Amino acid sequence: MRENGRAFDRIRLLPRVAVDVAGRTARTRLLGLPVPVPLAVAPMAYQTWLHPDGEVAAASAAAVAGVPFVVSMMASRTVEEVAATGAATVMQLYWLRDRGLFRELVGRAEAAGCVALMLTVDVPLLGRRLRDLRGGLVRPANVVAANLGRAGGGLDAVGGAGTSEVAAHTGVLFDPSLSWADVAWIRSVTRLPLVLKGILDPDDAALAVAAGVDTVVVSNHGGRQLDGAVATAVALPAVVDAVDGRCEVLVDSGVRGGVDVLKALALGATGVLVGRPLLWGLAAGGAAGAARVLDLIGEELHEAMALAGCPDVDSARRLRTSVAGGDR
Ligand SMILES: Cc1cc2nc3c(=O)[nH]c(=O)nc-3n(C[C@H](O)[C@H](O)[C@H](O)COP(=O)(O)O)c2cc1C
Ligand SMILES: CCCCCCC(=O)C(=O)O
Fold this sequence. Notes:
Blueprint: H1 2-10, E1 11-14, E2 28-30, E3 33-35, E4 39-41, H2 54-65, E5 69-71, H3 79-83, E6 89-93, H4 99-111, E7 116-120, H5 130-134, H6 165-173, H7 180-189, E8 194-199, H8 202-210, E9 215-218, H9 232-243, E10 248-251, H10 258-266, E11 271-274, H11 276-307, H12 313-317, E12 320-323
Parallel strand pairs: 4-11, 5-6, 6-7, 7-8, 8-9, 9-10, 10-11
Antiparallel strand pairs: 1-12, 2-3
Bound molecules: flavin mononucleotide and ligand LXCWX6NK.
């Protein structure tokens, strides 16, 4: 987790000068949609844990900012409630043991008007989260996975020594047998664009393209899964090379401001997913707090583009970078 931030800090940008940036724009396309800035909100579970309005408040902020909102399969408000905010909504899915429930969720996402499906591929089981274990993390009874019906409630018994309630619940619901054949099957059952989140190895990125995936997200889940996994700012360039323009490449994990977004673009990303900063805004100020976070990142990106001599996102993607020692 710490290395994600350090890796972005180590990236050095080579600004261009005497470029007319008076009319600069960060407008681009992301997930097949026009967006004012190359951002979307990452899927994050159980947002009513942080604020009573949860995902509805966060999605409203995304709607105001004009950026897509990815609703977690483990959201504490339903995909229908989120889509009703007017945000361009992407439904995130985990591979479930209950294939009937998985199919039902695909159908609900389509019916709710979602613009894409995002399959998260880096959670065959939940990572060993020592803070959750030491703190005895248990979901409050009123924070449930609203999309999952009866399967979304908490467990009566915690999984045992060395397992948090959330990790035990993951073990009950998620199917660790996911393979590329399953990805191809998912591709075949929906006409929605398909996004794979949790790619780090360029060979996996190439397999994703071969499976007909529209977008890959270079992600280590914000450092919450495999401790010691490569930082995304390090992994990104090889993935960009491997897909060679055949699909979109988004990145998350450690993006904390507009300069990080500019660095991601310079490393070849189509755009970024914003993770924890959105939750901090939500916890501090509900929809307004989440909106302020998105505004700040956008403002910082516009300023950084001016200072780096980038009138548009394509020129940001042509910026040269180097790597130095980290500060964070
Ligand atoms: C509290 C929390 C819950 C998360 N829940 C999900 C989830 O339900 N599905 C998913 O694909 N990723 C989930 N993630 C991972 C995020 O989508 C994203 O990859 C990560 O937060 C990015 O790193 P950052 O927080 O450093 O920006 C979660 C992250 C956090 C912090
Ligand atoms: C059964 C609860 C699983 C929640 C998983 C959410 C997630 O991905 C995370 O990183 O936390």
